[in-house]
């Protein structure tokens, strides 16, 4: 577990610094800063849009009597995307933008839940009829 924290808090920022320096060499320092700010603003707009869409989808599921568990996981991944997009750097921005793609989130959720493709509670419909006999049989 320690090596994951080491990678998260040491290696990722070092990789981000390296990429920022290399991009800065290519397009200039101010352009690099402007590009970082642009990705943060664009990410904020996309997060708001995706978040509201996920919220409305969850409300629709609730109104149909379904439990919107998958929508909650989409919301968590959108939140993680926001955290990554507001962290300065191009590597985290790339991962953050990928998390805003619904298909990518769905694949991640299926991987985390280890569900086979095409399965899910909303895709299976069982039609049944209940017949009651209220009289007593002697």
Structural overview:
This protein has 138 residues and is mostly helical. The protein is 72% helix and 0% strand. The chain contains five helices and no strands. Helix 2 runs parallel beside helix 4 (90-99). The longest helix has 35 residues, at 29-63.
The gist of it:
By secondary structure, the protein is an all-alpha fold.
Key descriptive features of the protein:
mainly alpha; 5 helices
Topology:
Elements: H1 2-27, H2 29-63, H3 69-85, H4 90-99, H5 102-113
Strand content: under 5%
- What ranges have pLDDT less than 50 throughout 5 or more consecutive residues? none
Inertia-based shape: elongated
Main sheet record: none
The total count of strands amounts to: 0
Counting helices, strands and paired strands, the structural category is mainly alpha
Q: Give helix and strand order, one letter per element, not per position.
A: HHHHH
What would the average pLDDT be, to the nearest integer?
84
Measured on Cα atoms, how large is the radius of gyration? 23 Å
- Distance between the first and last residues' Cα: 67 Å
């Amino acid at each position: 577990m320690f090596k994951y924290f080491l990678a998260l808090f040491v290696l990722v920022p070092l990789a981000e610094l390296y990429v920022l320096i290399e991009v800065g060499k290519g397009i200039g320092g101010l352009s690099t800063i402007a590009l970082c700010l642009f990705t943060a603003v664009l990410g904020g707009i996309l997060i708001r849009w995706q978040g509201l869409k996920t919220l409305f989808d969850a409300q629709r599921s609730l109104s149909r009597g379904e439990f919107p568990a998958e929508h909650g996981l989409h919301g968590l991944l959108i939140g993680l995307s926001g955290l990554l997009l507001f962290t300065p750097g191009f590597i985290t921005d790339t991962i953050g933008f990928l998390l805003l793609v619904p298909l990518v989130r769905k694949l991640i959720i299926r991987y985390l839940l280890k569900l086979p493709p095409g399965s899910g509670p909303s895709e299976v419909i069982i039609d049944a009829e209940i017949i009651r006999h209220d009289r007593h049989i002697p």
